[in-house]
Design goal:
- The chain is an alpha+beta fold.
- 41% of the residues lie in helices and 21% in strands.
- The protein has three helices and four strands.
- Strands 1-2-3-4 form a four-stranded mixed beta sheet, sandwiched between helices.
- Strand 3, helix 2 and strand 4 form a beta-alpha-beta unit.
- Helix 1 packs parallel to helix 3.
């Protein structure tokens, strides 16, 4: 499965929840997450999407560590099943 398919599925899933998954680019800050998901309960998630065989770059790992240090919600998703698992954990 390609990364684009997983990303599309993520966006559709967030939209069905009533939220929005914005494409995130920050020209002066390489390594930022692919998507910023704003959910109807007011929570915000930074989401990195990878193909199942994808690897995080050093900059992406650093961004994840920065988000953890800032106590932000951050996740790396590799499959559609992981999108579903994430959805299940946030909608309990």
């Amino acid at each position: 499965m390609r990364e684009k398919e997983i990303e599309t599925y993520l966006c559709e899933t967030v939209r069905r929840l009533g939220g929005q998954a914005f494409k995130f680019t920050s020209p002066m800050n390489r390594g930022v997450a692919d998507r910023v998901a704003c959910l109807p309960d007011g929570t915000v998630w930074f989401i990195e999407v990878k193909a199942p065989d994808g690897k995080l770059t050093a900059l992406q790992k650093r961004f994840g560590a920065q988000m953890a240090a800032l106590k932000q919600r951050y996740i790396v998703i590799y499959t559609k099943e992981e999108v579903d698992e994430w959805l299940h954990t946030i909608t309990k």
